[in-house]
Amino acid sequence: MPSLEPLFLNDERRKTSLATGFTGQDILSVSQFDRESLEHVFTRAHEMRELVDRAGYSNLLKGYILTCLFYEPSTRTSASFIAAMERLGGSVIPITQGVQFSSVSKGETLADTVRTLEQYSDVIVLRHPEIGSARVAADYSAVPIINAGDGAGEHPSQALLDLFTIQQEMGRIDGLKIAMVGDLRFGRTVHSLTKLLVQYDVSLRFVSPEILRLPLVLMNEVKDAGLNVRETHDVADVIENADVLYVTRVQKERFNDLTQYEEVRGQYEITTELLERAKAKMVVMHPLPRVGEIHYSVDSDPRAAYFRQVKNGMFIRMALLAMVLGKA
Ligand code: NCD
Predict the structure, then answer these.
(1) Which CATH class is domain 30-155+312-324?
(2) Where do the structural domains in the chain lie, given as residue ranges?
(3) How many angstroms separate the first and last alpha carbons of the chain?
(4) Is 290's C-beta closer than 6 angstroms to any atom of ligand 1?
(5) Are 283 and 305 in contact (CB under 8 A)?
(6) Is 77 a catalytic residue?
(7) Which of 155, 177, 185, 191 is catalytic?
(8) Res. 104 pLDDT band, cuts 50 70 90
(9) Per-residue pLDDT tens for 226-284?
(10) Is CATH 3.40.50.1370 what the domain over 156-311 is classified as, yes or no?
(11) Is 286 labeled as catalytic in the residue annotation?
(12) Catalytic-residue membership of 233
């Protein structure tokens, strides 16, 4: 399997803060966000929720065009960025139905594709299978690039919506015990969320098969931040104390050897029986899609937050688009 170690984004040059503002910024990694700017995003996301509840629609981004350029499959990320742009009155060029229908299939490079699409649009949301691809695109693009997943690297807008959901559901972030379950090695949502959580006073529990443990570089970040952290192979070890159970899918597409995937898939399933042992006030989250990690009978449990999490994604993406386009 490919090594993840040297490729994490940690570019201080692109650090976003309220001092410099978000206008015109690329959003490539969660390391661009400090606690103050996170609060700013969350406040804007609250306003977007109110806007949608009250009116459903605004003209804030009228005349602006977003290109969604997706080299990997997506349902939620692409649809929520499109919904976000359209609810703010903007328009979308959707290259989300498979780049095989674009000139990528003729051999066009990412650089040329991006340099073309920036001629038509004001912001580009990019999903691509290679770690670091969003950075490459940003180096070529004069318009902001929002990283919607660069291989097994990062997925910053997902982590923002995940953290926003934790705050919404639990009323706070500091003081919580957060357990992440599943593919911690290849799960980019886990990587980005972990990098955000090191800024808070949380306890972290990482539950995975041995070969899918959190990359060392991230574990070191967690330890350097002085957080209470433990790794285990067994959900039973964390279920009673967890305030947040963040469950993930094993990322089949990242395995070179599918027999290894078969060995680790299906190792975890969150069931109603398991949740009987969990706190009355806690949340079960999942970035989705799920492929067996959470039994459907869990969906009616009020602690199952994953579809509320989906909706929060639209509000966070409305906020991000308005912010990078200088309208928030
Ligand atoms: C995630 C992703 O693409 O990384 N999906 C998403 O954006 N909600 C998680 C996954 O595919 O398992």
Answers:
(1) alpha beta
(2) 30-155+312-324, 156-311
(3) 42
(4) no
(5) yes
(6) yes
(7) 155
(8) confident
(9) 999 999 999 999 999 999 999 999 999 999 999 999 999 999 999 999 999 999 999 99
(10) yes
(11) no
(12) no
